[in-house]
Amino acid sequence: MTTPQLSEQQLSESTDAAVQILGCGDVESLCQDDPSIRVLDVRTGGEYETVHIPDSINIPLDQLGEHAAQVAGIDRPVILVCQSGVRAEQAHARLSQAGKGRLFVLDGGLNAWETAGNQVNRGQSNRWAMDRQVRFVAGLMIITAIVVSTIVPPLKWVAAAVAGGLVYSAASNTCAMASILGRLPYNRSTVDVDTALEKLA
Fold this sequence. Notes:
The protein is an alpha/beta fold.
């Protein structure tokens, strides 16, 4: 996908349901120039507490679906953010289906935002980002299955299944493991969705 250079007027008039990508520079400039724009972070509450874009609002992806109609009814441009862009695109699909226009995705997510040297707010938590957790758990499962398969040969298929899951995840732009890990107490943090919706409005 290409990153469009959008003016404020184009941003306010956009109603295209296709995923529209904004680069870090575009997002930074537009947020400074237009206080009506909202940045919605769809990572887990734990990830958000660890680090987030200043003034961004957190509604985790797994809670967004039940509130999609309410977000769709908010008459403001909304820029979606996650760690790398994958969950933001999933959120875009859900919100677009609910009828939300003027909806955009930060290209490369928080990873790109930090790499570009933009300001972030950091908490005291040292939780790993979800994509890092997925890589660690998947790698650990594969190594363990291969080692144990020297004693119990059929376990080699567990390693193959995990590898296949990673291939499917890349091809489908989804991640079942991330969904599972996001439900663990380690990643969960109390998110007041009602307050978040008020801030979005």
